[in-house]
Amino acid sequence: FYSIQNIFLVLSSTNASADSDTSESRHGINDRHMASLLEACRDLDSWFVKKRFLLSSQRPDLLLQEELDAMQSETARKEKLIAETKVKLKQYVDSISAIVEQFTSDLSYRPQLT
């Protein structure tokens, strides 16, 4: 963890290092530091993949619970979207009914709208 923090500190500093040339120092990053950052990111990703694999092999119920939670949150999101769509649809129907009523109120002949 500390190595990643050190790499981020080096990458965010204004002077990259004494051995970088002017084009690299202008951007604040040189190839060596970028390679170190990429390697640290790969290591971190690998660590998370290993932990995920261990968890799924030792506690499959946790993986299933996570999937169930994701499905429940997606269902709740979609139900909210359906409710919002119903409200908008009712507003549109009311607006159209008001427009039709306004146009047909001035006519001597009123067609039967169903």
Automatic annotation (TrEMBL):
The keyword Transcription applies. One of its GO terms (cellular component) is mediator complex. Coiled coil: none annotated. Its main location: nucleus. It is found in: Nucleus. Belongs to the Mediator complex subunit 28 family. This is Mediator of RNA polymerase II transcription subunit 28. It comes from Opisthorchis viverrini.
